[in-house]
Recover the amino acids of this structure.
């Protein structure tokens, strides 16, 4: 096996079925004839390692291999493989931006997946450049690119209408995960009210990525060229989750490069302070960024048939979702605190 093209011909058996012995990660890399670069080793408790295989002739990445370090990570990777198999049916305009599953490997006794490598630069790269997020034009371009991509994906995969459901087990997971928190009953009560208001809307079930933050979005020439990490994906799910997650995570790190107490360049009214200050600013502040984020959410809700006025409830539900589902316990608690501050503020009489 001397090239990526040969590797691509070895389409795998369906996940979970009996198969002949899989190559180990090292064996696969050696047999591919490609150069390997470790591009990501996530820091969460159930970490995955991603290895890019690069053509020595062109210098372009050909394949990406993702392997787990724990049993839970292996389950997530196998789930991603199943989603990628189902994604093959999407029209070319979208499928070209999504990795294609081509093989499986073994790593320390656990299964890993081999995918085609999508091209482009992670949106997080430009986001983290000095003062990039202080300039309206660049930020607006990011939101526009994701809006266009999501619009095509959701139109291409739209199914039956159903009540807008941002729960999907979130409340139950929070109740279990935060059982030691004496204020959880109040939080769940407010969350139930938010869910009830959102359910007044009906939207189509669509393909859902499930973790659409700027680190998983690749761009080229101002357009989305790749979307990676489909572990939390679903072939038929709640489309609102994706654009809420993107907006939430974009706002979350606006003050990352600013010392506590100092104003954030380009965002009058935003000071670095309590964790989540950028999200609070997006919800309740004034300025070009809060208006851009709210317009993005309103337009996205309208596109799937929901009321644009539901944008705040949708964002609060998205914060609760992260608190419930993230692997990182500290990140979960911080999101719970953020949800609590914002939900309590919304509940106060004006």
């Amino acid at each position: 096996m001397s090239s990526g093209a040969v590797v691509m011909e070895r389409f795998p058996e369906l996940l979970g079925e009996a198969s002949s012995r899989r190559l180990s990660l090292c064996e696969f890399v050696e047999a591919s004839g490609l150069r390997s670069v470790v591009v990501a080793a996530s820091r969460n408790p159930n970490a995955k390692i991603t290895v890019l295989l690069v053509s020595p002739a062109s210098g372009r990445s050909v394949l990406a291999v993702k392997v787990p370090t724990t049993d839970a990570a292996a389950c997530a990777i196998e789930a991603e493989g199943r989603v990628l198999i189902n994604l093959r049916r999407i029209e070319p305009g979208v499928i070209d931006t999504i990795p294609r599953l081509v093989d499986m490997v073994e790593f320390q006794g656990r299964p890993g997946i081999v995918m085609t490598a999508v091209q482009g630069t992670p949106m997080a790269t430009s986001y983290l450049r000095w003062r990039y997020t202080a300039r309206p034009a660049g930020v607006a371009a990011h939101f526009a690119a994701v809006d266009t991509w999501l619009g095509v994906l959701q139109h291409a995969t739209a199914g039956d209408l159903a009540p807008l459901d941002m729960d999907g087990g979130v409340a139950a997971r929070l109740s279990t995960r935060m059982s030691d928190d004496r204020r959880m009953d109040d939080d769940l009560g407010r969350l139930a009210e938010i869910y009830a208001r959102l359910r007044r809307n009906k939207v189509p079930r669509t393909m859902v990525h499930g973790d659409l933050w700027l680190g998983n979005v690749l761009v080229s020439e101002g357009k989305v060229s790749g979307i990676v990490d489909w572990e939390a994906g679903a072939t038929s799910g709640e489309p609102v989750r994706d654009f809420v997650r993107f907006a939430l995570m974009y706002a979350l790190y606006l003050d990352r490069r600013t010392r506590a107490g100092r104003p954030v360049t380009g965002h009058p009214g935003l000071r670095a302070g309590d964790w989540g200050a950028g999200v609070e600013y997006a919800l309740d502040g004034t300025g070009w960024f809060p208006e851009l984020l709210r317009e993005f959410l309103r337009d996205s809700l309208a596109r799937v048939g929901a009321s644009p006025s539901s944008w705040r409830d949708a964002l609060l539900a998205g914060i609760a979702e992260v608190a419930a589902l993230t692997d990182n316990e500290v990140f979960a608690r911080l999101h719970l605190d953020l949800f609590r501050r914002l939900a309590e503020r919304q509940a106060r009489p004006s």
Notes: The domain at 121-347 is CATH 3.90.1200.10 (Aminoglycoside 3'-phosphotransferase; Chain: A, domain 2). The first helix runs from residue 4 to 8.
